Amino acid sequence: MQLSINYGTKTIYFDVIYRKRKTMAITVEAPDKVTAIVPVGMKEETIKKKVMTKADWIVKKLYEFKNVKHIPLKKEFVNGESFMYMGRNYSLQIELDDSLQVPEVKLFRGKFIISTPTKDEEALKNAMEKWYREKAKEKINERVEYYQYKIGKKPAKVTVKEQKKRWGSCSSKGNINLNWKLIMAPSPVIDYIVVHEMAHLVHLNHSKEFWNLVESILPDYKERRKWLRNNGVRMGL
Ligand SMILES: [Zn+2]
């Protein structure tokens, strides 16, 4: 179902998804998708009223998407901001807890929850990045393990790290580097990058043979690559 509200001179259109939950959550995704996830049975008028209380934030987000198309989006560490993990968006909830030394992140009941003694953006961002890096390592190591039998080669070393402009790389020594931000992508897309870099263990180029090898393992690799080209800009903090 789609609803809309008028906010100043603007009309905000949004999709409504009913779920078994107690509170409403709103997500805004590039370029202009607004979604309200609401408890089953919530009345239209109530939904509209609640979305209206967030209208200012929604308009700001939509405006950002419009103006920074090619620049990676900067996340805000405030309640309701959405963060990607394995291809899905989860909204953030910040819970102040003075008994903690450093912020702690967890994914719980469909939300990212940061329990934190501070609201300092840098501290929250670091905690979130640390969480993503750990998940990325686990997932990538597991996928490398899985595909090494299909490719028949094993990397000398796998490193998950920050890479400004690429998702992965493979050296002539057989070392593979993968970008931790990959963990924001859906599983099939993560697999594509893993297979791509591991196929370089066999062919250290982008020759026809290289692509044939990738295709023999992932026949639909082009679709997976397309997802990354379309959504890569959203994968960041
Ligand atoms: Zn390559």
Report on this structure:
With 237 residues, this protein is an alpha/beta fold. It has 2 domains: 2-119, no CATH class; 129-234, Metalloproteases ("zincins"), catalytic domain (Zincin-like), CATH 3.30.2010.10. Helices cover 37% and strands 27% of the residues. The protein has helices at residues 44-53, 55-67, 121-151, 187-199, 208-217, 221-231; strands at residues 2-7, 10-19, 25-29, 33-39, 82-85, 88-96, 104-108, 111-116, 157-161, 168-170, 175-179. The strands form 3 sheets. Strands 1-2-4-3 form a 4-stranded mixed sheet, covered by helices on one side. Strands 5-6-8-7 form a 4-stranded mixed sheet, with helices on one face. A hairpin with a 2-residue loop joins strand 5 (82-85) and strand 6 (88-96). Helix 4 runs antiparallel to helix 5 (208-217) and helix 4 packs across helix 6. The chain is globular and about 60 Å long. 26% of the residues are buried. The chain binds zinc ion (ZN). It holds the Pfam family YgjP-like. InterPro entries: UTP_pyrophosphatase-like, YgjP-like_metallopeptidase. Residues 22-230 form the YgjP-like metallopeptidase domain. This is YgjP-like metallopeptidase domain-containing protein.
